[in-house]
Structures are given as structure tokens and as C-alpha cells.
Specification:
Radius of gyration: 19 Å
Helix content: over 70%
Largest sheet: none
Shape: globular
Number of strands: 0
Strand content: under 5%
Number of helices: 11
Number of domains: 2
Length: 257
């Protein structure tokens, strides 16, 4: 167990150092989020191998966690890292703020993804411990499927909207984006409730939705995205804010208030 944990940490650090070295050349730190998602996928697989508990439970939890994280990694790789859109606005702003200290500070940012990923692997591992699968596991798997399908749909709807030159500078209200200003974030948060249901006797599973909610609302998610949208879309986005739920998908208000 100790040897496996040490090996996992070594691989995680090597991955993050490699991604950091690449951004030194490209001056594009968009791969930070890609690294985090790959770390969660690898951590889920490692936990499934090393944890105790029913093997089918470990296989289910490790499998759905890895699929979710790898889907997110593929989306980030194709939509951000390789898409040629330039550095993500969050990291571009940090690069300008940090100036000459950017290489060192980005190193800390990349390596900092290792403990953050470990924080999110903890509830996944907790859901693996226990006896044979039961009805709650089936409900959890259904919640996971709905979350992944919803997040995938939201990502594709936004990508199609952005790909149309006629929508340049406009606000996306297509599909799920009509019901929520951040449906991708909502379904990403919902996914973590699957592990709460599957491992209902393990209170440690609550770390997942609690930590993700904190990150989305206080760290890197909604506040920054909203500020960027207001700067780039102005009054059109303010109108969107007045009529559309910030997080929970809900029918829009008929008239701004």
C-alpha cells in the first residue's frame, strides 16, 4: 500500500512537472486543469486497486470516476490546450499579474494540483469501501450517468455556439444554457453526489460535493467566469444574469427584475 501511494505521488509530480515545462515554452498554462483531471483519473484507478471492500464495488466506483475524469481531460485537451484559442483567460491574467515571477508561481500552481486532486480522490476511495453493491449503488450510478450526459451536452452546445462566427460577442442561450448560466458546472457538481449515494455509510464522501461547490463558487469557477463575461459581453450578459439561474437549471424568468 505504502509503495503504491509513493509510486502514485511520484507519477503525479512527474506529470505536473512535465506540463509546467511545456508551458514555459508555449507560455500557455491552460494545461493546469488537464493535469488535475488526469490526476483524478489515475488516483481513482489506484484507489480501486489498493482499497479494501467488495471488488465489484471498487470496480464500479473506480470505473465511473475514471471515465468522468478522462472525458473531462479529453474535452480540456481538445477545446483548450490544442484548440489554438490562446491561454485561458484566468491564467493569462495571472501571468500578467505575476510578471517575472510567473515561472516560479506557475510551478507552485501545477504542483499544487497534486494535493487538490488527492482531496477529490478521497471521497471516491471512501465510496469503494463496503460490502456488495445494493440499490443505493444503482441510484448513484444513475445520478452519475445523468451528470455525465448533462455535462457533455452542455460542453457540446457551447462549443457549437462558439464555432459559429455569427455568434461572436453574443451570449449562449442554446439548450441547457437557456436554463442555467453554468450548466456544465452544475453537472460537474452533481457527479460528486453519485459517490455519496454509492457509499452512503461513509461520511467522507460528502467531501466531494462540498469541495466542488466551494471551488466553483469561491475559487476558480463562477465568479471569475462571470467577470470575464461581463467584460466581453457587457449589457447582453447583464440581461442574461437577470433572467437566468446562475447554477441550478431552471426555466428563465419571463421579464428581467
Amino acid at each position: 500500500m505504502t509503495a503504491l501511494i509513493a509510486a502514485a505521488v511520484a507519477v503525479a509530480l512527474a506529470l505536473q512537472l512535465s506540463l509546467w515545462a511545456v508551458q514555459l515554452r508555449t507560455r500557455d498554462a491552460s494545461s493546469v486543469d488537464l493535469g488535475w483531471s488526469l490526476l483524478v483519473a489515475g488516483g481513482a484507478v489506484a484507489a480501486a486497486v489498493a482499497s479494501g471492500g467488495d471488488p465489484w464495488r471498487r470496480a464500479l466506483v473506480g470505473g465511473i470516476a475514471a471515465v468522468w475524469a478522462l472525458r473531462l481531460a479529453f474535452y480540456l485537451l481538445t477545446d483548450r490546450v490544442l484548440a489554438g484559442h490562446g491561454e485561458d483567460g484566468r491564467y493569462r491574467a495571472l501571468r500578467e499579474k505575476w510578471a517575472g515571477a510567473a515561472p516560479r508561481n506557475f510551478l507552485f500552481l501545477y504542483l499544487g494540483q497534486v494535493p487538490v486532486a488527492a482531496l477529490f480522490v478521497a471521497p471516491i476511495a471512501a465510496a469503494m469501501r463496503g460490502g456488495p453493491l445494493d440499490g443505493w449503488a444503482a441510484v448513484g450510478a444513475l445520478v452519475w450517468a445523468a451528470a455525465v450526459l448533462g455535462e457533455t451536452a452542455a460542453d457540446r452546445q457551447l462549443a457549437r455556439f462558439r464555432a459559429d462566427p455569427a455568434n461572436r460577442g453574443a451570449v449562449c442561450r442554446a439548450g441547457l444554457w437557456r436554463l442555467s448560466r453554468h450548466p456544465n458546472y452544475f453537472f460537474e457538481w452533481l457527479q460528486w453526489w453519485a459517490y455519496v449515494l454509492i457509499g452512503r455509510a461513509a461520511t467522507l464522501t460528502l467531501i466531494g460535493p462540498a469541495a466542488m461547490f466551494l471551488f466553483l463558487f469561491r475559487v476558480t469557477g463562477i465568479p471569475y467566469t462571470e467577470r470575464q463575461a461581463l467584460r466581453s459581453r457587457g449589457e447582453a450578459y447583464r440581461a442574461y444574469q437577470r433572467t437566468t439561474s446562475a447554477f441550478l437549471p431552471w426555466p428563465p424568468r419571463r421579464s428581467p427584475s
